[in-house]
Write a structure and sequence with these properties.
single chain, 420 residues, alpha/beta, Aspartate Aminotransferase, domain 1, Aspartate Aminotransferase, domain 2, 7-stranded mixed β-sheet, 4-stranded mixed β-sheet, 17% strand
Length: 420
């Protein structure tokens, strides 16, 4: 029997580009590739059951540990009882009261005039970036900006908007890129607020100077800093610039918030325009009411007298792991946000290293190409406030055993990788 067109399409895709690459990796490393796993159970002490084994989880981006906070889970339960499980319509027609309240709280916490909640940061970026420009405008992005910013650029380009990338964290390269794109009406400059793998912060003040000279505004994806950097976890923008003039800031409601969604913060006028022009908001389903109640609770925690102690515990854990891994002579990257990466190198070696740690009782993420450059695989460890010092010491012991068992890059390899 002849195969259906869909079957032939899938067969063709399976033998093309990145799909072929991943399928080959699954075939070559069936026992090493710890992807598409099923978490079978979780405990409140940051352990979970994976592959039939209880291990300590250093792969969770619930940085403040609020996913296990009874106030947050109670808020979700309260939201279900009051509003049910679903909003019932697109936000183009109506918003439930917790949505309006959550956006007001987020704006008050940030210090912006207004905020707009999306179902995720990715949907914020693929909706807001194309919505901010027309064919008379341009969008430029840092070469290492998050994948979702890149996807937003692709959508803008498909609508006839000119787009470009500039060299990482370089105001001179930004200026040259904008100069080469003239004439244009306005420009949007898209960058990350913190680059999670390297820990680099963008020179926002210098970018702001360039922006004003070239009729441009800043668009800062601060998802990895939300809740964990800056005063009361507000992120990088307010600390670097003193406010949000000429800036839109994008944040995460998962990660540090341990809830669901993303947001854009900025002027009331900008938010009003995005409500009309952002397709992922207009045509996408909103964040369910129970999570909106949880978002309100988390903002209250971030603004409370309790937050500094919670943040201090997280920061101490990050320093503990970063210092310990560095003292082992490993090539350590990151550590500014609660993501610490250790360079391993080749894809197979990186996958073997991740499996080694798993077998020693610790789950970390083995990150290989295309998420990082080919041959520059890393072990990505995500630190939470509710990790104990003993758990971090145990991970460091496992890393020391890994270093004894297999050749690992020296610390100097990080500088050459960044330079490349």
């Amino acid at each position: 029997m002849n195969s259906a067109p869909l079957d032939r399409l899938i067969d063709a895709l399976a033998d093309t580009g990145m799909t072929r690459f991943f399928r080959r990796m699954f075939d070559d490393y069936p026992d090493l590739l710890m992807k598409d796993q099923t978490v079978e159970a979780v405990r409140p002490d940051r352990t979970f059951k994976l592959g039939g084994r209880w291990v300590t989880n250093f792969g969770s981006d619930s940085f403040l540990g609020l996913d296990q906070d009874s106030r947050v889970t109670s808020a979700i339960e309260r939201g279900v009882r009051a509003w049910g499980s679903h909003n019932g319509s697109s936000r183009a027609f109506a918003s439930v009261e917790p949505n309006v309240r959550a956006e007001r709280k987020i704006a008050d916490w940030l210090g912006t005039e207004a905020a707009l909640i999306y179902p995720s940061v990715t949907l914020a970026n693929v909706g807001a970036l194309p919505g901010l420009v027309t064919r008379r405008d341009v969008v430029v992005a840092d070469q290492f900006a998050h994948n979702s910013i890149d996807e937003g650029l692709k959508l803008a380009k498909a609508r006839g908007v000119r787009t470009a990338k500039f060299a990482h964290n370089s105001p001179d390269a930004l200026e040259e890129t904008l100069r080469s794109l003239r004439p244009f009406r306005h420009a949007v400059i898209a960058v990350d607020g913190v680059y999670s793998m390297s820990g680099h912060l963008p020179p926002l003040a210098e970018f702001q100077r360039v922006a004003r000279e070239y009729d441009a505004c800043l668009y800062v994806d601060d998802a990895h800093a939300s809740g964990v950097l800056g005063e009361h976890g507000r992120g990088t923008v307010r600390e670097a610039l003193g406010g949000y003039d000429n800036v839109l800031t994008i944040g995460s409601l998962s990660k540090g918030f341990s809830c669901l969604g993303g947001f854009v913060g900025g002027s009331q006028a900008a938010i009003d325009v995005l409500k009309l022009k952002s397709n992922s908001l207009i045509f996408g389903g909103p964040v369910p009411p129970p999570y909106l109640e949880a978002v309100c609770t988390v903002v209250d925690i971030l603004m409370s007298a309790e937050y500094p102690a919670l943040r201090a515990k997280l920061d101490a854990n990050v320093r503990h792991l970063t210092r310990g891994a560095t003292q082992l002579g490993l090539a350590v990257m990151g550590g500014r946000v609660p993501i610490v990466s250790v360079l391993v190198g080749a894809e197979e070696a990186t996958l073997k290293a991740g499996k080694f740690l798993y077998e020693h009782g610790y789950y970390v993420q083995s990150v290989v190409f295309p998420a990082v450059p080919h041959g520059a695989g890393v072990l990505r460890m995500q630190v939470n406030a509710n990790h104990t010092p003993a758990q971090i010491d145990g991970l460091l012991d496992a890393l020391a055993a890994l270093k004894d068992a297999t050749p690992m890059p020296e610390a100097s390899a990080v500088a050459s990788l960044v330079a490349a």
